[in-house]
Amino acid sequence: MSGLSSIPNPKLPATDAGRTINLALLGYGKMGKTLQQLAPQRGFDVRLVMDIDANLHAQGITRERFHGVDVCVDFTLPEAVLENVRHCAAVGCNLVVGTTGWHDRVEEVRKIIQNSSIGMVYAANFSIGVNLFYRLAHAAAEIFAPFPMYDPFITEAHHKMKKDAPSGTALDLQRQTQPHFAGRDIPVASVRAGYIPGVHEMGFDSEADTVILRHTARSRQGFAEGALLAARWVIGKKGLFNFDEVLKDAPQSHKDTK
Known about the structure:
About 35% of the residues lie in helices and about 25% in strands. The chain is α/β, with parallel strands linked by helices.
């Protein structure tokens, strides 16, 4: 599949709120295909799919095409994100951005969102497991930091098609744990080979022993689950949010729906 596709799907499970969420997908690579397969099982109707060639310079994002769309999920390319956000803001469609490699321009995106009426969720990684892994790594860094005989380090490995290195997840992990190690840099090592979905490690090495925390992605479904969780959460909200805010709110949301 390539280009532009509008996909009616009348027999879908309703959401907790009693209606199906209408979804647009930007990008139809491996993540786009995974999202399209999983979304109907999670109460979404995929109304529109636009591959990159149908949305050059975000020209495919129009009010006509996005009429009735509740939320948009972007898994495209780093260089496409800014214009996609700008055009989604112009048509008033909330969005989730799972594309990585653009976070050096987050302040530009923040200004676009602040001057619009939409909400946006972004993250270096939408895997729920990875984001819980961040919390474990943060706690481990706090524990090991007072012991200078342990050197912290981060490694990550992905498939050979992944464009950016180090991964956004590894850089985010470094950013979150570095404050515990004043005066000591946390090195990051990357591997790009084969078809590895994604492996991230936070390690602490001494002459006597090594302690390693590891997250291994078995498939892309974990990333899709997180992106769809964020897509449901961001509806009706305004502002720029990190996925961590979604996860902090998620347990309470689950309690409220029981």
